């Protein structure tokens, strides 16, 4: 599949979808500020099923419960074009756990979304109907643009007041979203809030606000890129080919060929790959989000971690506690994407974000209900 992006007038008509709730749990009217109502957000990706349950707290939210499970929904999708029976079975088991958590906590407002694997699979819609029958959950398949938009708004708190040109990168299991944003005309103190306002859509921004120069959804993530080169036996050669191939798929992304100054440029990366590389850099044997989220890494530090991964080889990566058994088979494809991005653009630093679609979904729901004090979308 070719990379996806809006074109012409069609892009201007894209609107933010209203939160969709599952019929398995009755939903109340939008709560009043301070009501304490719980919200849930679920992200069903190509590799993982993840959910957050949270409560509004001031202008942010407090996580009450979470769930994360590697389900490998997209296993074999690259070759067959379909979701396999085994991967669908694993996913439904994970979704049953999520459904029980939603009921146990009495969650009143939630949104459950699926991304690239279900967008691409010929039986994706059929699987969504099966999920509804077997779990009672209404999981909606969102567009690539909304996926990118949710990743953008979740990263807004990490935008520096000195940033004028911003690249947000979300490396998923089945696709990678890149969004280039110009905030040079926004007052430094309002730049993070201007990014939040992009929840309204990439094309419908007021003059003087954040401007999306371009965005792209490349149908290559850690799982799909790995599958492209699984027949290459040499570990180093496979890594080099994956990095080159990913870069080739960026040729139509307009900022790819644009000369940009280093000053005022920031890359924010959000994904399991980025956080794993950060944890490895810090030498964390047990993952600690408070040490990873917001960390800045230099390109030299990233390269050092990747060289270490290559020197370990497949067996060494499998047993390395910094990587984890759930990620060891995918870390090199993710690292290939990350290295390509750092090689292409004029910066020697990457801001690490341990946040993504779930956080974006929570912000969007809470903002729509008006339960955030001095909400970030105002």
Number of strands: 11
Taking the sheet with the most strands, its summary is: 6 strands, mixed
What is the helical fraction, as a range of percent? 25-40%
* End-to-end distance: 37 Å
List the domain count as a whole number. 2
CATH homologous superfamily title of the largest domain: Exopolyphosphatase. Domain 2
Could you please say which CATH topology of the largest domain applies here? Nucleotidyltransferase, domain 5
CATH architecture heading of the largest domain: 2-Layer Sandwich
Which spans have pLDDT < 50 for at least 5 consecutive residues? Answer: 6-34
Order of helices and strands: HEEEHHEHHEHEEHEHHEHHEHHEH
- Percentage of β-strand residues: 15-25%
User: What's the pLDDT, averaged over the residues?
Assistant: 85
Strand order of the largest sheet: 8-7-6-9-11-10
The total of helices stands at 14
- Radius of gyration (CA) equals 20 Å
Tag the structure with descriptive keywords.
378 residues; alpha/beta; Nucleotidyltransferase, domain 5; 2 domains; 14 helices
Describe the structure in your own words.
The protein is an alpha/beta fold. The chain has 2 domains: 18-141, ATPase, nucleotide binding domain (Nucleotidyltransferase, domain 5, 2-Layer Sandwich), CATH 3.30.420; 148-357, Nucleotidyltransferase, domain 5. Helix content is 39%, strand content 19%. The chain contains 14 helices and 11 strands. The protein has helices at residues 8-12, 77-80, 85-105, 116-120, 124-135, 144-155, 191-196, 222-228, 235-248, 272-282, 289-292, 299-319, 331-344, 357-369; strands at residues 39-44, 48-57, 60-70, 109-114, 140-141, 165-171, 176-182, 211-218, 265-270, 296-298, 349-353. Strands 8-7-6-9-11-10 form a 6-stranded mixed β-sheet, with helices on both faces. Helix 3 (85-105) crosses helix 5 (124-135), helix 6 packs across helix 14 (357-369) and helix 9 (235-248) crosses helix 13. The radius of gyration is 20 Å and the shape is globular. The two termini are 37 Å apart.
């Amino acid at each position: 599949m070719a990379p996806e992006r809006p074109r012409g007038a069609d892009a201007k008509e894209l609107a933010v979808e209203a939160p969709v709730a599952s019929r398995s749990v009755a939903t109340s009217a939008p709560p009043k500020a301070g009501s304490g109502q719980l919200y849930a957000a679920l992200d069903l990706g190509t590799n993982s099923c993840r959910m957050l349950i949270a409560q509004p707290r001031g202008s942010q939210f407090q996580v009450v419960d979470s769930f994360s499970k590697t389900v490998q929904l997209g296993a074999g999708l690259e070759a067959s074009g379909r979701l396999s029976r085994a991967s669908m079975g694993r996913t439904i088991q994970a979704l049953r756990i999520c459904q029980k958590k939603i009921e146990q906590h009495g969650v009143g407002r939630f949104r459950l979304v699926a991304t690239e694997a279900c967008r691409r699979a010929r039986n994706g819609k059929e699987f969504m109907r099966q999920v509804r029958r077997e779990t009672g959950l209404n999981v909606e398949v969102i567009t690539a643009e909304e996926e990118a938009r949710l990743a953008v708004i979740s990263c807004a708190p990490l935008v520096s007041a000195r940033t004028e040109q911003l690249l947000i990168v979300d490396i998923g299991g089945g696709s990678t979203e890149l969004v280039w944003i110009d905030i040079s005309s926004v007052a430094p103190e309002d730049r993070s809030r201007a990014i939040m306002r992009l929840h309204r859509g990439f094309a419908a921004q007021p003059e003087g606000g954040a401007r999306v120069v371009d965005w792209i959804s490349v149908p290559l993530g850690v799982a799909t890129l790995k599958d492209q080169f699984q027949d290459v036996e040499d570990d180093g050669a496979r890594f080099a080919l994956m990095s080159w191939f990913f870069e080739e798929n960026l040729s139509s992304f307009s900022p790819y060929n644009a000369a940009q100054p280093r000053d005022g440029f920031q890359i924010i990366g959000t994904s399991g790959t980025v956080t794993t590389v950060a944890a490895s850099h810090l030498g964390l044997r047990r993952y600690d989000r408070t040490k990873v989220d917001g960390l800045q890494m230099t390109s030299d530090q990233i390269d050092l971690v990747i060289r270490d991964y290559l020197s370990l080889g497949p067996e060494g990566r499998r047993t390395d506690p910094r990587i984890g058994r759930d990620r060891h088979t995918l870390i090199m494809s993710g690292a290939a994407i990350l290295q390509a991005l750092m090689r292409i653009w004029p910066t020697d630093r990457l801001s690490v974000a341990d946040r993504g679609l779930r956080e974006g979904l929570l912000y969007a729901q809470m903002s729509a209900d008006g339960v955030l004090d001095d909400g970030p979308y105002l």
